[in-house]
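Escalated from tier 1: S-adenosylmethionine holo job.
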Amino acid sequence: MAEIEWTYVTRDFETISGEAAKALIEKTNDRRYLTRDAGIRTVSVDRWKLAQDAELHHWLSVRAHMDEDRNVDHAYMYDRYSALQGRTFENAIELGCVPFTNMRVIGQVCTMKRVSLLDPLAEGYLKHPHCAYREGTLTTLNGNVVPVAELIALPIEQFQPKESYDLVVMLNVIEHCYNVPVIFRKIWDMTRPGGLVLFHDRYYDHEQVIVEAERTYDAAHPLKVDRKMINGFLQRFQGVFFRVITTHGFTQHSGTGDQVYFIGVKPETA
Ligand SMILES: C[S@@+](CC[C@H](N)C(=O)[O-])C[C@H]1O[C@@H](n2cnc3c(N)ncnc32)[C@H](O)[C@@H]1O
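Tier 2 regenerated the structure:
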């Protein structure tokens, strides 16, 4: 495994390295959350709130000019969502939708009769100049208008769904959360039998997380989940699409390592 540099990423997304980072990491780090073999899969709610403070600041100040969060990149990685082409979903939900949503892109290839959007920062995101759901509807990139059934300003861990969903989308969110076992249980329960789950995230290895917990701290990204835990969850679904890509850290904060893009069906018998 390559040597990992001391790296401290602040609430303002400033990256500090070398001895200055080392001094900061000695005071503030996430080592206490390391599990025996699953990376970091839970943190305290207070630690999560610090990360959420960084995230809100990121979108409302640092990136107030932006109108998407790699949503089109995700579409390419998913072969432009061709597995969903021509399908109709009665009740879709996106988890961790930021101000823009992936549903604007996904809704180009399929019909969503209604969509719910969940993000703990949803109320703050309504102030973003490019918030896509401020008017209570979502307009897909090819101009279809989808009613927003519910805007849910809660973490998934605290969400008590009143209904089930036949399309559940969660892309690039898990590192921001605070309790992955609860989240996986919630996603399973909210997905209708026969419904589809789209999941994309970083694939960590526990050994790598041990080293990173020692030498790095990233205010906005508290969790680093070992791939075995992610795979254990995804294997409960019937796989429709599975792709692993390796990133090389060419863009700031993208890091290096594997990322999984998955689509699966919850079995009818579940
Ligand atoms: C990197 S952004 C998501 C990006 C977007 N989904 C995409 O495809 O690029 C992470 C989002 O997850 C949200 N988030 C943080 N903790 C969460 C939780 N416990 N449940 C749901 N969303 C959460 C954050 O507020 C933030 O808006």
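The pocket of S-adenosylmethionine is lined by residues 52, 55, 69-71, 74, 95-96, 98, 102, 119-121, 155-157, 171-173, 176-178 (CB under 6 Å).
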